[in-house]
Amino acid sequence: MSDALTLDDLAVPLRVLRLLxxxxxxxxxxxxxxxxxxxxxxxxxxxxxxxxxxxxxxALGIAPDTVTYREQSDxxxxxxxxxxDYAGAxxxxxxxxxIVAPVLVGGAA
Length: 109
Prior knowledge:
Blueprint: H1 11-23, E1 31-34, E2 41-47, H2 50-59, E3 68-72, E4 77-86, E5 89-98
Parallel strand pairs: 2-5
Antiparallel strand pairs: 1-2, 3-4, 4-5
């Protein structure tokens, strides 16, 4: 991170965001982040919308085997993540979803 960065230093991910909005405006809207910490990265985050994550993954041509899976919050939340280079920026997709606990039938434990 640098205090000397200007808005021009974030031009690449901002241009990619503009391209994505034009080309994929019909897809689910993610939470969008551009940061001075990673000035070449555009982050698209999906909360409780794994189908949206998957639609974006397919639209960007990202292979399914590049998606990582992990759990957080003591196994209550699943996290999918992948990154692809797109028009000069690193585009990171992250999807979060609750893990539904199984329902026990007949009091079985």
